[in-house]
Amino acid sequence: QKEVEQNSGPLSVPEGAIASLNCTYSDRVSQSFFWYRQYSGKSPELIMSIYSNGDKEDGRFTAQLNKASQYVSLLIRDSQPSDSATYLCAVMNSGAGSYQLTFGKGTKLSVIP
Amino acid sequence: DTEVTQTPKHLVMGMTNKKSLKCEQHMGHRAMYWYKQKAKKPPELMFVYSYEKLSINESVPSRFSPECPNSSLLNLHLHALQPEDSALYLCASSQAGVLSGNTIYFGEGSWLTVV
Description:
The complex is a heterodimer. The N and C termini of chain A lie far apart (40 Å). By secondary structure, chain A is an all-beta fold. Chain A is built from no helices and eleven strands. The model of chain A has no long low-confidence stretch (mean pLDDT 92). In chain A, the strands form two sheets. In chain A, strands 2, 4, 5, 9, 10 and 11 form a six-stranded mixed beta sheet that branches. A five-stranded antiparallel beta sheet of chain A has the order 1-3-8-7-6, with no helix packed on it. Chain A has strands at 4-6, 11-14, 19-25, 32-38, 45-50, 54-58, 61-66, 71-76, 85-95, 98-103, 107-112. In chain A, 0% of the residues lie in helices and 59% in strands. Chain B is built from no helices and eleven strands. Chain B has strands at 4-7, 10-13, 18-25, 31-37, 44-50, 53-57, 64-70, 73-79, 87-94, 105-106, 110-114. In chain B, strands 2, 4, 5, 6, 9, 10 and 11 form a seven-stranded mixed beta sheet that branches. Classes of the chains: A mainly beta, B mainly beta. The interface between A and B is medium-sized, with 26 and 27 residues.
C-alpha cells in the first residue's frame, strides 16, 4: 500500500511568517512529487512540482525533496491571508501501465492577519 | 486558468436519474482521470484512461460508467446513484508513458448532489 502522510493541522501562522508543511511517503521508487493548494469548495490547484533532490523555489514558495529520507516539504515565505487553504501533498506512482497520484490527507493552513 | 474543462459545474439528480459528467482537455495529454472528493477528505482515484483505454478501475461500483470517446474527451455516466455518492468529481489529465517530469492537472470539478 503506497502511503503519503501529512500533519493534518490546522497550522496557524501570523501574516508575514514562514509556514512549513511536511510530507512523508512510503514508496521508495517514487520520482514525482507535488503540492496542491485547495480552497474550500474549489478544486486542487498545482502550486509546486519537484522531481530531484534539493530545493526548488518559485516566488514565495520553496519545495524541498529528500528521497533518501522519503520526505518532501513546502515552505511559504511572507505568508498572506490569501494563503489560507488546505495544502495537499501528492506523489505520482506508476502501475498497470499508467500513472496516478496518491494524496496525503492535507494540511489546513490559516494565516492570521 | 485550468485547461481541463468540466461540465456541468453543479448537478442535482434523483436516485433513478441517468446523467453524465463531461471533461475536455486540449493539452495533448493521453492520460485522463476521474477522482472523487468528499468533504474534508483528499481526492480518491476512480478511473484512469491511458491512450483512450481504461487502465485502472479502483473497484468503483457499476453505477459509475466511464467513457473516453477520443483523446480530448472523458465522460462519467451516472445511473441509480445513492445519496452517499454526493461529492465533488474531479477530472484530470497528464502525459501518458512518462513518469519523471510528468504533472497531473485538474479541472474545476463538478459538484454532484444525489437526492
